[in-house]
Every structure is written in structure tokens, then in C-alpha cells.
Amino acid sequence: MRITGSISLACLLYAFVAPGPARALEYYPLVAAVVRPEKASVGSRLEYVLRVSGERLDDIEIVPPDAREFIPPPRMGPGAAPPASAAVPLYVIQSVERKEESHERKRSVSLIMGIVYYRAGRHPLPAIEIRGADGIEIGYKIPEVQIEARNPAGEFQEIEPPLELGGNYYRMLALAAVMGLLAAGGYLLFRRQEGRRTKAAIPATPETPPLDEFLASMQAIRLRIRTQEVDAGEYVLEASRLFRVYLSRLIGINGMEMTSLELAASLEGRLGEAARSRLGDDFDRVTGLWDIAKFAEFAPSASSLGENLELAMELGRRIAREARRAGL
């Protein structure tokens, strides 16, 4: 009996003192990854979130993918020329953000990536490297996303008038233009008569504000889309050029030779991080379609072009408000 009691006591003490698997796992980090949404179309922006949580995260290293643009090697036989689609990236990582949170003893580190896929199919998300204090890589289940093509046939579709005013909108523009010309003519005549008496010079006509010029040009493109006088390639080149000219005049940059990512960085530099955050998703949606429409296998529909044009015009108005708020 004494021997049995001693053994039981020794086992009990060992359970409290010895570092068993349960105590070792107590400090092992938990890793979870999700993508939102899990099903999207070509060119849509996704949010890829990796979360590492635990008690001891000081020595945990989280490394995002090196390549912001990934083009997989083409599959072809010896001597064959690569297909045109080989130039289309599988995905482009548009943004990477790191966030840390803590609650009592628990901590978490999240890596949030904005990513756009440009090829249809089911694809795994890019792997994110995680290493513990011992340098050993920590594995996790990599999520997958289903990407569907946008209008694979590239056919034009009927679209509704984007403005509630319909045809009255253009009559109002024409009436406003006529009234403006009459007012300008009366003003010049008045100044000329005044000049004869006072010998004062007639002031020069003021320059058209950047926003007014941009909106007027985009409205002209809208008419050409409705009458199918412009295809997707022509629209993308013209809309992208007008948008870059507008930003160059408004905030004082040379946007004609910039990529979309460089334009976004210039906006943040001139207007501030908060303004860039407010403009973020719409800016990426507008420029994202222009970027992918340059590839031969992606042909957006007339409906997509119309939606993009309306969003670009609204984005131009919001950027003008942010510029006034920043004192530009």
C-alpha cells in the first residue's frame, strides 16, 4: 500500500511539473487564412487575410510574397511560340497592410492583401511565409478562389441611360452653353464700351477648370459608347489619357507616364493618406479595368464600359473635393 501510494503521488507531481505536449502547444501560434469573396470575376478586387494568433508572437516572422505581379511560365512544347495570353498576369497584389491586436495575454498579427486575378479558373491564393523562433516554417491551409470570365464573347450589350435626366440633360447643357455665350458676349461688349472711355484693357478669358474639362470630355465619350462608335480598346486609351491629364492639372503631377500604382502613390503624397483611403476602392476599380482591358483576351462589354465611365466621372468629382480640402 505504501509503495502504491508513493507511485501515485510521484505521477501526480510529474504531471504538474513535466513539460508535456499540452503545455508545449499552449504557446504554438494558430494560423488562419481567408479570402473574401471566394467567388469573383476577372478584374474584381479580393481581400486576402492571414491571421496569426497566440501568446508569444515576438519571434514570429510573416513575409508577404515578393512579386506584386505574378505571370506563370507558359506551358508549350519545344520550339513553340508562347501564346498571347502568356503576357497576362495571373494576379496582381495591389496593397499589403499589417495590423496587430492584443487582448489580455492573447495577441494577433494580421496581414491584409488587396489582390486582383486576371485569369479565369480556380486558383490558390499566393503562399505567405511564416517562420517561428526556431526558423522552421509554419504551414497553414491556403484558401482558393473561383474566378469567372467577364463576357468571354466580348459582345456589346444594351445599357440603360446612366443619368436620370436622360435626353433633357443634353438640352440643359446646350441651353447653358448658349446662355454662357450670350453672357460672355454682353460682358465683352460692355468692357469694350468702357474701354473707349477709360482706355482699360479687356481681360483675357479664364482657363477652363480641370474638373469641368474632364467631365465634358468624358460625356462626349459616353455618347460614342451609346452609339457603338468606340470599341473597348479606344475607350480605355482615351479615358485613361483624359484621367491622367486631369490629375496632372489638378494636383500638379506628371501623370501621363505613370502606372496605376504610381498614380495612387502620387494621390496619397499630394492629398494625404486619409484621402487616398477614402478614394481607395473606387480608384482601384476604375484603373483596374483600364489595366486589364489592354490585354487581348479581355474584352469588356458596353455595360462594363458604361459603368466604368460613370464611376470615373464620380471619382473625378471626389478627387476635386479632396484637393480643395487639402488646399490645392
Question: How many alpha or pi helices?
Answer: 8
Question: Approximately how much helix is present in the residues?
Answer: 40-55%
**Which spans have pLDDT < 50 for at least 5 consecutive residues?**
9-25, 156-167, 198-202
Proportion of strand residues: 15-25%
Q: What structural class is derived from the secondary structure elements?
A: alpha+beta
Spatially, the strands of the biggest sheet line up as: 1-3-7-6-5
So what's the overall shape?
Answer: elongated
Rounded mean pLDDT is 76
Major β-sheet profile: 5 strands, antiparallel
* N- to C-terminal distance: 90 Å
Backbone CA Rg: 30 Å
Oligomer: single chain
Taken in chain order, the helices and strands follow as HHEEEEEEEEEEHHHHHH
Q: How many strand segments?
A: 10
Could you explain how this protein is built, in words?
The chain is an alpha+beta fold. Among the domains are: 28-73 and 86-148, Immunoglobulin-like, CATH 2.60.40; 207-325. Helices cover 45% and strands 19% of the residues. The chain has helices at residues 2-17, 21-25, 167-198, 210-226, 232-251, 260-271, 273-292, 302-325; strands spanning 30-36, 39-41, 45-54, 61-63, 69-70, 91-103, 106-117, 121-124, 129-131, 144-148. The chain has a 5-stranded antiparallel sheet. Strand 6 (91-103) and strand 7 (106-117) form a beta hairpin. The chain is elongated, with a radius of gyration of 30 Å.
